[in-house]
Amino acid sequence: MNASEQTEPRLVIVAYKPKPGMEAELLQLTLEHVPLLRKLGLATNRPALAGRAKDGTIVEVFEWAPGAIAKAHTDPEVGKLWVRYNAACDYVPLNSVAEASDMFAGFVPIDL
Fold first, then answer.
1. Record's superkingdom (predicted)?
2. Domain range for residue 31?
3. Would residue 81 count as lying in a domain?
4. What angle do the packed helices 76-88 and 23-39 form, to 10 degrees?
5. How far is CA 104 from CA 16, 73, 93, 98, in A?
6. What CATH number does residue 18 fall under?
7. Is residue 104 part of a domain?
8. What is the tens place of the pLDDT at every residue in 22-74?
9. Helix (H) and strand (E) counts for the chain?
C-alpha cells in the first residue's frame, strides 16, 4: 500500500530497539507518541498498546487515521518526534524480536 492511498484506518505494530543508554528516553517517547498523533488528528482513539521484550525492545500497537500516514511525513511536530526516535532507538522488524516467534507472543505491559 502506498501511504498516499491510505483511505481506511491502518492498525500497525512497530518495534523499537533502544540504543545503549537510551532506554529511559525511548520509554518517554512511547508515552508521548500516540497522544501527539491524536492531537494532530493522525491517530484514531482506538486504545494503543505497548510492551517491553526481554531485550528491552518496545513493541507498540496503534491505529493511524485514514490518510494520516502520508500527512505524518510532512508534519513538523511529527518530524521532531521522529528525530528523537532516531537518536533513541532503531526500528526493527517485528520478527526480529525473539518473543514474536512464540505462538502467544508475550511482553511486559507499559502503561500508556
1. Bacteria
2. 7-97
3. yes
4. 160
5. 20, 33, 17, 12
6. 3.30.70.100
7. no
8. 999 999 999 999 999 999 999 999 999 999 999 999 999 999 999 999 999 99
9. 3, 5
